[in-house]
Amino acid sequence: MPKQIHLAAHFPGVNNTTVWSDPASGSHIEFDSFREFAQVAERGKLDFIFLAEGLRLREQNDRIYDLDVVGRPDTFTVLAALAAVTDRIGLTGTINSTFNEPYEVARQFASLDHLSGGRAAWNVVTSWDAFTGENFRRGGFLAQGDRYDRARSFLQTATELFDSWRGDEVVADKDSGTFLADPHPGAFAHRDRFFDIAGQFDVPRSPQGRPVIFQAGDSDEGRDFAAASADAIFSRHSTLEAGQAFYADVKGRLPKFGRSRDELLILPAATFVLGDTEDEAAELAQEVRLAQVSPATAIKFLEQLWNRDLSDHDPDGPLPSVDPVVGENTIARGRASVRMHRDPVATAAEWRAKAEAEGLTTRELIVEVTGRQSFIGTPQTVADTIDRYVQADASDGFILVPHLTPGGMAPFVDRVVPLLQERGVFRADYEGTTLRDHLGLPLRHTDGASAAAS
Amino acid sequence: MPHPPIHLVAALDGAGWHPAAWREPGARPAELLTAGYWSDLVQEAERGLLDAVTLEDAFALQSDDPFVADDRTDRVRGRLDAVLVAARVAPTTRHIGFLPTAVVTHTEPFHLSKAIATLDYVSSGRAGVRVQVAARPDVAAHLGRRELPPVDRDAVATAPVVVELFDEAADYVEVLRRLWDSWEDDAEIRDAATGRFVDVDKLHYIDFEGRHFSVRGPSITPRPPQGQPLVAALGHAEVPWRLIGRSADVGFVTPTDAADAARLVAAVRTEQAAAGREAETVHVLGDLLVVLDDDATAAADRLARLDDVAGAPLRSDARVFTGTPAQLADLLMEWQRAGLTGFRLRPAVLPDDLEQVTRGLVPELQRRGAFRTGYEAATLRGLLGLGRPANRYATA
């Protein structure tokens, strides 16, 4: 039997993926947009929807960045409301471990899991920047080197809270008058250099026991963190070769944490453009890329690598001849992607070489290096490609990011999903009720061991 | 002149406010952690045209004595996050407002601000929050963010740590309110010609600097539909009344009789004036724990039976009312004349006493011209007679 594909829909966030100037683009704040987005994804029997998080409006050149979608609602609140207008689809939210406390986050996820009948998932991210910290009591105190240690401790502590109720404490027997089988449920005590907490957790065990845990880390440390403790990885390696390399690497790390290969799913983010013919899709994809990378946006991208003001640079001319300013990125703040530029001078040199070889202007170059969609083609080609990638172990499926809110998933759901269903590589309907059921993940138990889902 | 309308809020908590409520025939104690249970209750309150529901919460298991944890196994224990319950229920209702409880002592105002703003979006303008201070040392140990000293029970109303926590709560509400205003209503411009999604001149840093925290802003969530969602608080003494006077739109107080109601209203008005808010509407609602039945003897018998099951007479910070819906209507109208603008009713048993409110009390008040006969506004502010406020940062 071929591998079954897992598919999810990412509500587009505050970056240039969203073509907000398109007349079909709706609100990214109003609940109706989220309702439509989630209901379309559920119509397609997708595993889950995914919401990102932002805790400070981005700035560039000391001004709030205004070229992309700005603003978003609160992740937990939207997911809880979506539980009311959907029945089966999983509800995944990114929640930062730096600007929260384990007790509060654990009770929010346990509550969401109860309120959704077992559909909650947590993408655990970590941050250390003082810029975001200015919005919080805690401030931006975290040393960069501590971020995985604290995230690991945070997740461990939250897990202890999730597991502090075994699941058999609430009896609620009216006749005998016994509500609790245990006089002191939810007891916990955790002490390490990050958290020193003790007492009783107040939310009884939720349907999934723990929410499904996602990780997005890509560094060696991040991969180990995921291999040790996550149920799924939200990766960014969506090409065949890079996907296979990442897949083999991370799956290969599982045995040293006593876990089997099917206990961690690898789900890269992916974009797509569909057309009735290959040519039409390619043409549309190019249009979308140009809309995503306006001349002004191209300059902003350039500045993010160059780490200097390039507002006078001509987007239709060649790349700047000066080199990037090396060191802490000060031009763009609140934007995690700038940290991906680990050697800006070398990257700039690569970009220059590519632009010269292919005769590209600055904007054309930026379109090439940032904008190419993962899957472009007819529904048949895209279905073939996705299936091929998954069967070739480039991933276990994809988290799809449409370029339009809220209707951008509909073409995929209506045209690609049926083809995958016909091939028998994607579910025709939901078989279980919880997100762990959809993902084929075992329930995880108090002692850290796994057991088959009931 | 028509009778000034009474505002009614239903206080929802567990199986009801009597410790034996969960053992009643109509109780659903095994469903207290399900969405269906809460949707059913709020929809019942909405059928009764109530202004809003409150949802209790705390960062601790329930206890008979709210100041001390206990190990009882014969009471409801365990609950869900109130803001998320409200968000889950909101799309299943159309008119009623939500005032979930949020602990401010241990949480981030930035997070709560966007959560309540988002609750306002998912409910199309029906959100508020009931802010609550948590002074217990054992609750502080759950969060680990700060240590709090034990508070002398008899001096709780004036203990320095309590005074400080309420001052901090006022700062917290100030941050909530500034963040809700940190986007002007028309900040999102989607100007394709210039490529600008927002007008950055209409986004505002709030730059709050207080003794306990500072917050830069702006919010990540645009200004909510109501502009300012409602802020509510419960108070039994001068320090919390000061918070109500300084910061709240709705204060809950616990009068014992009409004269006491007048005294409590005056106390809140004094604090409101001291805060320079005389011109603003602050609703003062009286809390009552209600045991209602079709005749007064039946109600008294029911309470006696519940007390018997619980093994002790019902104790409450609020007055316990036992009687018929018509008798309760008499009392509410008398207390309204003392200056209260409405009531927060705590049903002893859910859904029984809530249904007595929606199907007994409400028609009775309607007959007397003292309660709405249909929802007259689309937002919670509207139901409470409050306009949509101007944005403090708007210059035009």
From TrEMBL, chain A:
Example GO molecular function: monooxygenase activity
Amino-acid positions noted as binding FMN in the UniProt annotation, renumbered to this chain: T94, Y148, S219
Highest taxon of the lineage: Bacteria
First and last residue of the signal peptide: none
Record keyword Protease present: no
Keywords, ordered alphabetically: Flavoprotein, FMN, Monooxygenase, Oxidoreductase
The UniProt record lists the keyword Oxidoreductase: yes
SUPFAM superfamilies according to UniProt: Bacterial luciferase-like
InterPro entries linked to this entry: Diverse_substr_monoxygenases (IPR051260), Luciferase-like_dom (IPR011251), Luciferase-like_sf (IPR036661), NTA_MOA (IPR016215)
Segments forming domain Luciferase-like: 23-392
Family matches, as PANTHER family: ALKANESULFONATE MONOOXYGENASE-RELATED, C2H2 FINGER DOMAIN TRANSCRIPTION FACTOR (EUROFUNG)-RELATED
Family that this chain belongs to: Belongs to the NtaA/SnaA/DszA monooxygenase family.
Protein name per Swiss-Prot or TrEMBL: FMN-dependent oxidoreductase, nitrilotriacetate monooxygenase family
From TrEMBL, chain B:
Alphabetical list of InterPro entries matching this protein: Diverse_substr_monoxygenases, Luciferase-like_dom, Luciferase-like_sf, NTA_MOA
Keyword Flavoprotein attributed: yes
Gene Ontology molecular-function annotations: monooxygenase activity; oxidoreductase activity, acting on paired donors, with incorporation or reduction of molecular oxygen
Binding site for FMN: D57, T101
Pfam family, one: Bac_luciferase
Residue intervals of the Luciferase-like domain: 33-304
Record flagged with keyword Flavoprotein: yes
Keywords of this entry: Flavoprotein, FMN, Monooxygenase, Oxidoreductase
Spans through the membrane: none
UniProt record similarity statement: Belongs to the NtaA/SnaA/DszA monooxygenase family.
UniProt xrefs under PANTHER family: ALKANESULFONATE MONOOXYGENASE-RELATED (PTHR30011), C2H2 FINGER DOMAIN TRANSCRIPTION FACTOR (EUROFUNG)-RELATED (PTHR30011:SF16)
Name of this chain's protein: Flavin-dependent oxidoreductase, luciferase family (Includes alkanesulfonate monooxygenase SsuD and methylene tetrahydromethanopterin reductase)
Taxonomic source organism: Klenkia taihuensis
